[in-house]
């Protein structure tokens, strides 16, 4: 239930300080008595609330409904050489194309072709938005084979388009569609776009200043950029959570054969159909699970308020406290199937809370904390959140931490705030990451630490809605659309997303296709670059890949000493069995390291301890070593 900028706004109405301290909490837990909800009733509702249509134009909503273009803005750049009549004619053609593109999320090829032809026609009439979508869509292969409309982007950039500047930064950074990469020019374009508050450009700059990529390394500058993006994420969070940003690591699927069946992987179609069958028969747990999947679009399921409401309603009829809580969230936020209604939301939360659900408890607390339909009451808010924290609920922990951070109805206590916010962050609360970033950047309750603060802000920034195409990239790869997947991952890799970097390098390494858009640049060199960037962001598999490339001289010069250093980093930091084995081999043969058979044996032993699956190769290596030791004992070997 963590939500928008309300977390950054201290309610104006003053409340008596109730001084709930760590001592109080300890005493309360020792008593084994939970705070009572008897004084929380619907009589507290002062504003029932009505559904108010926001002021976002319907066309903008339709444009933004397509996840492919969600990261672009509608700028309506006007060219001097376009008269009013021409613009109106081209705008009508452009809107017709958008209607086709947004009619269904998954379009047949002939629908795409119709929309594409209309965009081409509008772009030829100098319609700025048509030019931009055409350039962006063709660049990432959304319509057909990748194309690069540099003339369109240059003209748009000349007239102040932040999106065009961002895309030019991406092109010059990666060398897509141009003869030579130009990292310096990329920085210039990204910087111009960043000045216009372009989100993706700000992320690209934050990443570059953090690691010193083509700029002088500056943690403080990186922090400024990532904080700006993180603030956008926090201000747009929904009570219901918003659409899940699903990012699957392709390397993890290789490492674990069970990844598809894990709770973090995309849900199997047959399994989803089974859950639907069980839910329609009244299985409460199946209904709750489906409600969660459809509410936030988790595990590759397309989000649907209608389906979420349907399944939560079935579970609610069976008395599910969790279903009551989520229905409360939907009514408090207001959706097209649940018009905003504070009283209905309150009653659902109360039913949920009385049955012990932390979802309902945090819902009530939220309403009292921010005065959503009730008078602000910090005492009731704190009490409700405290009930949720007893069940280690991340949202309850978030708001208890927040209240101590702000001193809302309680003594301001940064140490206590830090404790609860850290617990909430471990539970996955995005808002908790944001406030931890704030505390570490300002030195509130902790020693100021820029690197730690940037890490928190970067985590928040990468949960923004612009990351939704990650799932589309994964789907494209699984469906054999390698070029589309590669280009989509490359865009986010250039922005600093570690998962995109490792996925891009993985696809580039595995495929045998010749990608003409890299203009004969050695793709192994490009893969090596992104394996290294991923490794710098603490991916152990990528760290080993960097070592492998250096060991064999793939995409770079052969360097045993540096390869050993990469394996050592992976072994020391992650206790990775493959890295331990590789180090053992290099010590055994004196490759880049002093020859040391005893140390090699120790590393082989550690490798099998870390991963029993390494038993066979380790056994072979150890047998060889024992043979060498035996022959030495007979003075047959020196």
Automatic annotation (TrEMBL):
GO cellular component terms listed in the entry, alphabetical order: endoplasmic reticulum membrane
SMART domains found in the cross-reference section: SEL1
Pfam families (UniProt xref): Sel1 (PF08238)
GO BP annotations listed: ERAD pathway
Family statement: Belongs to the sel-1 family.
Name assigned to this protein: Uncharacterized protein
Source organism of this protein record: Strongyloides stercoralis
């Amino acid at each position: 239930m963590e939500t928008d900028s309300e977390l950054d706004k201290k309610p104006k109405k003053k409340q008596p300080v109730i001084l709930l301290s760590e001592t109080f909490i300890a005493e309360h837990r020792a008593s084994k008595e939970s705070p009572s909800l008897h004084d929380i009733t619907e009589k507290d509702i002062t504003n029932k609330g009505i559904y108010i249509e926001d002021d976002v134009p319907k066309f903008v909503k339709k444009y933004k409904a397509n996840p492919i273009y969600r990261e672009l803005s509608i700028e309506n750049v006007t060219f001097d050489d376009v008269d009013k009549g021409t613009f109106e004619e081209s705008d009508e053609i452009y809107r017709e194309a958008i209607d086709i593109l947004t009619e269904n999320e998954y379009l047949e090829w002939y629908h795409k072709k119709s929309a594409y032809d209309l965009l081409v026609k509008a772009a030829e009439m100098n319609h700025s938005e048509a030019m931009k979508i055409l350039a962006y869509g063709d660049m990432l292969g959304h319509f057909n084979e990748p194309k690069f409309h540099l003339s369109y982007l240059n003209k748009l950039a000349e007239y102040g388009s932040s999106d065009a500047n961002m895309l030019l930064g991406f092109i010059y950074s990666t060398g897509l569609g141009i003869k030579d990469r130009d990292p310096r020019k990329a920085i210039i374009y990204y910087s111009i776009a960043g000045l216009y508050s372009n989100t993706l450009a700000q992320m690209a700059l934050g990443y570059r200043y953090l690691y010193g990529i083509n700029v002088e390394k500056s943690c403080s500058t990186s922090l400024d950029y990532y904080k700006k993006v993180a603030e956008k994420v926090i201000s747009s969070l929904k009570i219901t959570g918003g659409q899940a940003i699903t990012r699957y690591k392709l390397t993890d699927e290789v490492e674990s054969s069970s990844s598809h069946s894990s709770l973090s992987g995309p849900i199997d179609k047959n399994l989803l159909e089974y859950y639907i069958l069980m839910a329609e028969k009244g299985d409460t747990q199946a209904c709750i699970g489906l409600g969660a999947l459809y509410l936030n679009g988790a595990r590759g399921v397309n989000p649907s308020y209608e389906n979420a409401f349907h399944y939560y309603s079935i579970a609610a009829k069976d008395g599910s406290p969790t279903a009551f809580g989520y229905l409360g969230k939907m009514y408090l936020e207001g959706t097209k199937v649940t018009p905003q209604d504070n009283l209905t939301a309150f009653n659902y939360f109360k039913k949920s809370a009385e049955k012990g659900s932390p979802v309902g408890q945090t819902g009530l607390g939220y309403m009292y904390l921010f005065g959503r339909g009730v008078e602000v009451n910090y005492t009731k808010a704190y009490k409700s959140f405290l009930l949720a924290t007893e069940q280690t609920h991340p949202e309850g922990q978030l708001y208890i931490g927040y209240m101590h951070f702000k001193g809302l109805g309680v003594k301001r206590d940064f140490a206590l705030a830090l404790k609860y916010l850290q617990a909430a962050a471990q539970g996955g609360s995005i808002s908790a990451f944001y406030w931890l970033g704030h505390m570490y950047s300002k030195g509130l309750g902790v020693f100021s630490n820029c690197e730690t603060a940037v890490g928190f802000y970067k985590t928040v920034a990468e949960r923004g809605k612009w990351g939704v195409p990650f799932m589309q990239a994964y789907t494209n790869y699984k469906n054999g659309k390698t070029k589309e997947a590669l280009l989509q991952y490359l865009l986010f890799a250039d922005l600093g997303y570690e998962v995109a970097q490792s996925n891009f390098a993985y696809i580039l390494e595995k495929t045998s296709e010749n990608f003409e858009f890299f203009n004969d640049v050695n793709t192994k060199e490009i893969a090596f670059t992104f394996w290294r960037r991923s490794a710098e962001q603490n991916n152990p598999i990528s760290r080993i890949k960097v070592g492998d490339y250096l060991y064999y001289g793939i995409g770079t010069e052969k360097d045993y000493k540096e390869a050993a250093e990469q394996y050592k980093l992976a072994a020391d930091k992650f206790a990775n069995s493959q890295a331990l084995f590789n180090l053992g081999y290099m010590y055994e043969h004196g490759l880049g390291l002093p020859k040391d058979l005893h140390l090699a044996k120790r590393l082989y032993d550690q490798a099998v301890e870390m991963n029993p699956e390494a038993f066979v190769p380790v056994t072979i290596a150890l047998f060889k070593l024992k043979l060498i030791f035996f022959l030495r004992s007979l003075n047959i070997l020196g």
